[in-house]
Amino acid sequence: MRNADDFSRPLSVSRLVLLLQELVEDNFVQVLVEGEISNFSAPASGHLYLTLKDAEAQIRAVMFRSQARRLRFVPENGLQVVCRGRVAVYRQRGELQLVLDGMEPQGLGGLQLAFEQLKRKLEAEGLFAEARKRPLPAFPRRIGIVTSPTGAAIRDMLNVLRRRSGGIDVLLCPVRVQGEEAAAEIARGIADLNRVEDVDIIIVGRGGGSMEDLWAFNEEVVARAIAASPTPVVSAVGHETDWTIADFVADLRAPTPSAAAELVVKNRLELESHIDHLLMRLQRPLRDRLRLLQARVEGLRRRLLPPKERLRLQNQRLDELRRRLLAAWGLTDTRRRERLALLSARLDLLSPLQTLGRGYSIVFRERDGKIVRRAGEVAAGEKLRVRLHRGELRAVVEKTSS
């Protein structure tokens, strides 16, 4: 510091500015300043330039690239912020300026503001459009998962996939899901899985946590990787209430990692359930039909006798038929004999022999063998033949009379 007598002599500009620089920079090493951003610019150098102002004053500020890279949000004109830094003097112009180490928006947190800014940006580009959403394959055979190999999320997803749908290949792309390098690894994992043949679906996610823990899934590089993925992507980050930029870009947002696993095999489960239902509907009539056929077979089996037994029964039946035939024949013969006897008796009653037996005879003329019924039919001396009941007589007519 200079004594009062020293100010009696003129100072050079540079000397004055140097004295001011020493004074200011020694006394304002760490300050917090709140104000509204104006004149913001972000040139290619990566440094950020802005003016902080309030109703009555303003001051220039700069945030160098090394600090600016750590900002989660992009400063905007009109944004009310609280800045942390030191006061410095820009010697070339002799101006005061704030050299900022950090910046937080007032009201809205820095992460939330960054989230909202990136969301607006990507939405304006159409990355959230429903028209971009692709349907998931109904029956995936190979599923790629981008997540931590040691987290609870991968265990939950594998448990669900193993329990709900066996036979699906799972390719795990191990990445960090938290920290500064996480976003780049996740984006690289998505790209790597897209180079693997026959990957039908990619699940990207992790378990729950704070907004800072989940921040990797709010990074633009992850959102761009999901949007560029030829394979449909399912976002499964945190719990049901956690929404990330990845959820908006993905083809499907699952509320939890376990739910993501269930969703990708949902159609398979529905189909299996439908098939089970159809099988149950088919089994019932088939079982009834089978029981009926079994009953018929059993009936036929019971009716189907062994050959020896069947021969024995046939012989038994043959004996029965023979016995009945003989009985019928005997009865018929008896009846025939009785009828024959009856007819013989009737015939005997009509036979001339019966008449001859009662003492009558029959007279035949010898010369022509005709029966003589009147005396006039013969003449005296004519020879006759007389038939008796037993034997015949020869006679000669001595005399006739009428």
TrEMBL record:
Catalytic activity from the UniProt record: Exonucleolytic cleavage in either 5'- to 3'- or 3'- to 5'-direction to yield nucleoside 5'-phosphates
Broad class of where this protein is predominantly found: cytoplasm
Record keywords: Cytoplasm, Exonuclease, Hydrolase, Nuclease
Gene Ontology biological process terms from the UniProt entry: DNA catabolic process
Domain called Exonuclease VII large subunit C-terminal: residue spans: 127-338
Localization of this protein: Cytoplasm
EC number, as in UniProt: 3.1.11.6
Enzyme class: hydrolase
Organism domain of life: Bacteria
One of the record's GO cellular component terms: exodeoxyribonuclease VII complex
Ranges for domain OB-fold nucleic acid binding: 11-103
Keyword DNA damage applies: no
One GO MF term: nucleic acid binding
HAMAP family in the record: Exonuc_7_L (MF_00378)
UniProt subunit comment: Heterooligomer composed of large and small subunits.
Biological function: Bidirectionally degrades single-stranded DNA into large acid-insoluble oligonucleotides, which are then degraded further into small acid-soluble oligonucleotides.
Family named by the database record: Belongs to the XseA family.
The protein's name in its UniProt record: Exodeoxyribonuclease 7 large subunit
Organism encoding this protein: Geothermobacter ehrlichii
